[in-house]
UniProtKB/TrEMBL annotation:
Region (Disordered): 366-395, 408-489
Similarity comment: family membership: Belongs to the short-chain dehydrogenases/reductases (SDR) family.
Keyword Repressor: no
Organism superkingdom: Eukaryota
Keyword terms, alphabetized: Membrane, Oxidoreductase, Transmembrane, Transmembrane helix
GO molecular function list: oxidoreductase activity
Residues annotated as transmembrane: 280-297
Protein name stated in the entry: Oxidoreductase
Composition-biased stretches (Basic and acidic residues): 370-391, 412-423
Lineage: Eukaryota, Fungi, Dikarya, Ascomycota, Pezizomycotina
Gene3D superfamilies, A to Z: NAD(P)-binding Rossmann-like Domain (3.40.50.720)
Annotated Polar residues bias: 431-441
Length: 489
């Protein structure tokens, strides 16, 4: 079959249904170029592998994008994963997210701890809880993937403590967390492979220098993000030195290493927010132009490869820490000031004093708020007690009123009965008994037969004391019938 076709091609030329070979070359070349571009832009895939059973991994940013893929891959390999999430573990989204990850990874050891990385207080609460444990908790890895970025055109925002958001979440939160967790890291046994991964970004290359603060008028989302990532890299180098300089009680060298990882540009929720400028119209443009995003940006899984390489590659435990990993390779930093000790010292000191100052300030604010809350609670309690007392009084009044009502009704009934009785009696005696005294007419309720009977020693003081009610009625009736001249029946 192919032979006659080839012969016909040679002798008769191309058949009429066959497109122009130049066109085929153009289309094929374009598809090939697209495939090569896609493959290139997707980046390198790690070949490193390691069993993670029994290892404890703390991850920030594990609910989205690159961090979520990393957390899942850790869980899949058997690690115990502690996600530091902005929301509480009881939040429905977080509990669903963790339930789903547990099911997919076949690992139940995935937990969440609430840590808002935009709050120094929240970080301190978690980290002090973690280190406040004897013996020290096992800790094999800290993967710091959380980050925030204001979309282009967005305005500068600050957290409650007055720190600019990108600086706080991308840099200071990591500084604060690792600062407090330092004793827990240093307390790990010598032979434990402890790694700390800092997710950075190549935007650090274009950052303004760290020695001058970023003025409000010079502020832009790009500069703020790039500067926070540069600070993170400088801090990474300094933290490695801080760990290396620790003299262990057993005189063995420290075995904890920092790795900075640039995952490359990826189609994560954070990137989508940035590209769409956080607007609906931007999102529509993103959807329309999605082919470009698909071609030039990695997917989340490919972006996580360098992070996974830093976590899983056994060879990295040999040699120094403080390395930058990009495309699953150790690369050099593109800026000299990343390794500048003076810059690092200044950054460390200024971050430390900023945290100290703000924590003191916030402690006063919290104490005052607590006191005010205490006062408010006390007032609310008093108010509640007052309301309860009023309600109780009202209830008593109501009860008395209803009792009086019942008494009144009873009286009316008795009066009616007496009236009816008198009528029938008068009818029987033909009206002659109309002058006869009938005390029940005056006191229908209490003037029962028993009360109407006189006490045995009526008229004496002791009898009056013995039965004042009975006596009182008898006395009044007697007064009525003899014009008030004395007791007489
Ligand atoms: N994507 C890229 O193209 C790219 C490129 C270079 C470097 N990177 C770096 O790679 C890392 C991961 O990026 P990504 O794009 O995957 O991130 P992402 O999708 O934007 O996710 C950011 C994560 O950070 C968490 N987070 C933000 N603010 C927080 C706060 N105040 N407290 C606690 N958690 C907070 C978010 O939690 P919520 O889910 O609660 O919001 C989320 O899990 C980042 O460090 C980023 O700078 C990314």
């Amino acid at each position: 079959m192919p032979l006659p076709f080839i012969v016909s091609l040679i002798f008769d030329g191309l058949p009429s249904w066959m497109p122009d070979p130049w066109r085929i070359a153009k289309v094929g070349g374009t598809l090939g170029a697209l495939a090569i571009t896609k493959r290139y832009m997707s980046g390198a895939e790690t070949l490193a592998e390691r069993d993670m059973h029994g290892r404890v991994v703390i991850i920030t940013g594990g609910t989205s994008g690159i961090g979520a893929v990393t957390a899942f891959e850790m869980a899949k390999r058997g690690a115990q994963v502690v996600l530091l999430t902005r929301q509480s573990p009881s939040d429905p989204y977080i509990s669903d997210f963790i339930g789903d990850m547990r099911e997919r990874a076949g690992n139940d050891l995935i937990y969440a701890e609430q840590v808002d990385l935009s709050s120094l207080h929240s970080i301190r609460k978690f980290a002090t809880r973690w280190i406040d444990n004897a013996p020290p908790r096992r800790l094999d890895m800290i993967i710091l993937c959380a980050a925030t970025m204001t979309p282009p055109g967005g305005t500068r925002t600050e957290n409650e403590e007055g720190i600019e958001s990108a600086w706080m979440v991308n840099y200071l939160a990591n500084f604060h967390l690792l600062g407090i967790l330092s004793p827990a890291i240093r307390a790990q046994p010598f032979d434990r492979d402890v790694r700390i991964i800092l997710a950075t970004c190549s935007s650090y290359i274009g950052s303004p220098p760290l020695d001058a603060p970023l003025d409000k008028k010079d502020w832009s989302p790009r500069k703020a993000y790039a500067r926070s990532k540069l600070a993170l890299m400088v801090f990474g180098q300094a933290y490695q030195k801080h760990l290396d300089s620790y003299k262990r009680p057993d005189q063995l060298p420290m075995n904890a290493r920092i790795f900075m990882v640039d995952p490359g540009f990826a189609r994560t929720p954070g990137m989508r927010l940035w590209l769409s400028r956080g607007s609906i119209w931007g999102l529509l443009v993103y959807i329309v132009m999605y082919a470009f995003a698909w071609l030039f940006l990695k997917n989340e899984s490919m972006a996580a490869q360098s992070v996974l390489h830093a976590v899983l590659d056994e060879s990295l435990i040999r040699g120094e820490g403080g390395k930058l990993i990009k495309e699953c390779m150790v690369v050099d930093c593109a800026r000299k000031d990343v390794k500048d000790e003076d810059v690092a010292k200044k950054l460390w000191e200024s971050s430390d004093s900023l945290i100290e100052h703000i924590e003191k300030e916030q402690a006063v604010v919290r104490a005052k708020a607590k006191k005010d809350q205490g006062k408010r609670d006390l007032e609310a309690k008093k108010e509640q007690e007052k309301r309860d007392q009023e309600a109780k009084n009202a209830q008593q009044v109501e009860e008395i009123e209803s009792l009086l009502g019942a008494i009144k009704k009873g009286k009316q009934k008795e009066a009616q009965k007496a009236k009816d009785g008198r009528k029938s009696k008068n009818g029987g005696e033909n009206g002659t008994a109309s002058d006869t005294h009938n005390s029940s007419h005056c006191h229908p309720v209490f003037f029962t037969e028993k009360l109407r009977r006189l006490p045995p020693s009526f008229g004496t003081a002791s009898a009056q004391q013995a039965n004042p009610v009975a006596h009182g009625y008898a006395y009044q009736d007697a007064q009525r019938s003899n014009g008030g001249k004395g007791a007489r029946l």
